[in-house]
From TrEMBL:
The lineage of its organism: Eukaryota, Viridiplantae, Streptophyta, Embryophyta, Tracheophyta. This is Alkaline/neutral invertase. Invertase that cleaves sucrose into glucose and fructose. It comes from Sesamum radiatum. It is an enzyme of class 3 (hydrolase). Belongs to the glycosyl hydrolase 100 family. SUPFAM superfamilies: Six-hairpin glycosidases. It catalyses: Hydrolysis of terminal non-reducing beta-D-fructofuranoside residues in beta-D-fructofuranosides. Keywords: Carbohydrate metabolism, Glycosidase, Hydrolase.
Length: 609
């Protein structure tokens, strides 16, 4: 564990950036890429109105084709939500809508804000984050720590509620931890690695407080977090966008922190792909879900029977990391200064973005046409003209994907590598692809079409599935190593994660379907608390947060999404992102609150797999 016993310096020098210095970078438009992936010609179902939310009345949505009662009841609740009206310290102001004739706080929202405030962690008298969960039943685990990825939805809630100081403190504290030596046994990690989590150690005898960081040396499986650095850059951009305060990102230490993270990701090596090679367990899915190494233990005659329809796993090039990588690169372009080292990194990032976007849109994308193309692939093709560039075996196509793929719709598959495709749906990666505009406009609409068409499978009555489908039976034994936490429909193996609803909500609003996330909000009611998983953590800070849709003039949700590159030219460089916040109109989704005490909740499943 790495420790920090001193407070963070917050007096970095600030240098103004001339926004005109980046005008020459406007020529970099991803829409002008040669040999762009084909555009999808979709005749989408429009059961959800796609007008701007500012054009919609505050009443009910148009009658959907199914589950109408759920939709209407959900929006009755949505329109009545607002935060508690306390205004002391970190209190929460009232939102635009009251609850009932007396304009009192909605009990659900009040309870959620209370849980969020109880999860705050203080260092030297200042809030620096929120703990992973308020559950004290698992004292030997690390749920009492502040996780970088888990704090992001909490940070967005504070930003959109006009409370940016806690986010600023978190950014600076984690940045200071980045500079400390990171060593596992006798091996030293890269300088730019961000911690997975940290906690505050109180010493009542000496009356001191110490920050203790975990870079993977204490984690289950001893895997360093790849996604922490990406979330840190994304949150820094969200803070800058929300507050209009450019001085934080302009600080020399913040600029250096971004460059260190980018150095790790942009380093040249043996890889022939622009995607980022990752180990198992390096992101939100932090447990073994890979199978390739274990096929060698099977009898030869059984290999095909187990390989057909099995999943490649997280090891390799998982969609979650690639989407976060893309989004972090785009955010870095808006934050990097045009000085000597910053200019060099901007050029490297631009080149990588071009290659990465083309690769992901071409080879990770799956729709009905691409599925039929893969089914007819020839193998063992040699030369640069090969169609089956990854030498994917058509017999490896799982049977479920043919039934799962709708006529109109598509998604980014879980993993792509040599002779290796993971066809599973991963919610976080696809939602980030929409928000970051890694998905083209047509692809983003196709993703939403798939979610709508396969609502029962991907959302169901206990939102929201982290992946689909679940691995079970002998395949579960091989891929997970008989992991009891990852039994079918549990935890990372198709488990339900309500915390992902904020990403789904943001993706729905960005694609013009603001009514779609109303259903899971109505489904989350106290009656479902009896349906919990075998390995559950109660009162997770992240799962306390959900989605509230508010119609306002200035769009606050845009602090987290990036514009579609097919519709406008990118503005590379820090200065271009200034001054637009006050003029942007559109949609606001305050990342607020679902019923607390619901964490990865799924029905208790049979263990006879």
């Amino acid at each position: 564990m790495s420790t920090l016993t001193v407070d963070v310096q917050q007096n970095g020098s600030v240098k103004n950036v001339d926004s005109s210095s980046v005008h020459e970078l406007d020529e970099y438009d991803f829409s002008r890429l040669p040999d762009r992936p084909r555009n999808l010609n979709l005749e989408r179902k429009r059961s959800f109105d796609e007008r701007s939310l500012t054009e919609l009345p505050l009443g009910f949505s148009p009658h959907p084709p199914s589950r109408a009662d759920n939709f209407y009841r959900a929006f009755d609740v949505l329109d009545s939500f607002f935060s508690p009206g306390r205004r002391s310290g970190l209190s929460t102001p009232k939102s635009l809508f009251g609850y009932g004739p007396s304009n009192e706080p909605h009990p659900m929202v009040a309870e959620a804000w209370d849980n969020l405030r109880r999860s705050l962690v203080y260092f030297r008298g200042q809030p620096v984050g929120t703990i992973a969960a308020l559950d004290n039943s698992e004292e030997n685990l690390n749920y009492d720590q502040v996780f970088v990825r888990d704090f992001v939805p909490s940070a967005l809630a504070f930003l959109m509620n006009g409370e940016p100081e806690i986010v600023k403190n978190f950014i600076l504290k984690t940045l200071r931890l980045q500079s400390w030596e990171k060593r596992i046994d006798r091996f030293q990690l890269g300088e730019g690695v961000m911690p997975a989590s940290f906690k505050v150690l109180h010493d009542p005898t000496r009356n001191t407080e110490t920050l203790i960081a975990d870079f993977g040396e204490s984690a289950i499986g001893r895997v360093a977090p790849v996604d922490s650095g990406f979330w840190w850059i994304i949150l820094l951009r969200a803070y800058t966008k929300s507050t209009g305060d450019t001085s934080l990102a302009e600080r020399p230490e913040c600029q250096k922190g971004m460059r260190l993270i980018l150095s790790l990701c942009l380093s040249e090596g043996f890889d022939t792909f622009p995607t980022l090679l990752c180990a198992d367990g390096c992101s939100m899915i932090d447990r073994r879900m890979v199978s390739a190494l274990f096929y060698t233990t099977l009898p030869y005659q059984n290999i095909n029977s187990y390989a057909r329809g099995s999943d490649a796993g997280v090891y390799g090039y998982p969609i979650e990391i690639q989407a976060l990588f893309f989004m972090a690169l785009r955010c870095a372009l808006l934050l990097l200064k045009q000085d000597g080292p910053g200019k060099e990194f901007i050029e490297r990032v631009i080149k990588r973005l071009h290659a990465l976007s083309y690769h992901m849109r071409s080879y990770f994308w799956l729709d009905l046409k691409q599925l039929n193309d893969i089914y007819r692939y020839k193998t063992e093709e040699y030369s640069h003209t090969a169609v089956n560039k990854f030498n994917v075996m058509p017999d490896s196509l799982p049977e479920w994907v043919f039934d799962f793929m709708p006529l109109h719709g598509g998604y980014f598959i879980g993993n792509v590598g040599p002779s290796n495709m993971d066809f599973r749906w991963f919610c976080l990666g696809n939602c980030i692809a929409v928000l970051s505009s890694l998905a083209t406009h047509e692809q983003a609409m196709a993703i939403m079409d798939l979610i709508e068409s396969r609502w029962e499978e991907l959302v169901g009555d206990m939102p929201l599935k982290v992946s689909y489908p679940a691995i079970e039976s002998h395949e579960w034994r091989i891929i997970t190593g008989c992991d009891p936490k990852n039994t079918r429909w549990s935890y990372h193996n198709g488990g339900s994660w309500p915390v992902l609803l904020w990403l789904l909500t943001a993706a729905c609003i960005k694609t013009g379907r603001p009514r779609l996330p109303g259903v899971p909000l109505n489904l989350l009611k106290p009656g479902y608390r009896k349906m919990v998983g075998q390995s559950i953590t109660m009162e997770s800070s992240g799962d306390t947060l959900g989605s509230k849709l508010v119609n306002t003039k200035h769009g606050r949700l845009q602090v987290i999404w990036l514009q579609d590159d097919a519709r406008r030219s990118f503005s590379f460089g820090y200065g271009r992102d200034r001054g637009r916040q006050a003029n942007e109109t559109g949609l606001e989704a305050i990342v607020l609150f679902l019923i607390p005490n619901l964490v990865n909740f799924v029905p208790k499943q049979d263990s006879n797999l």
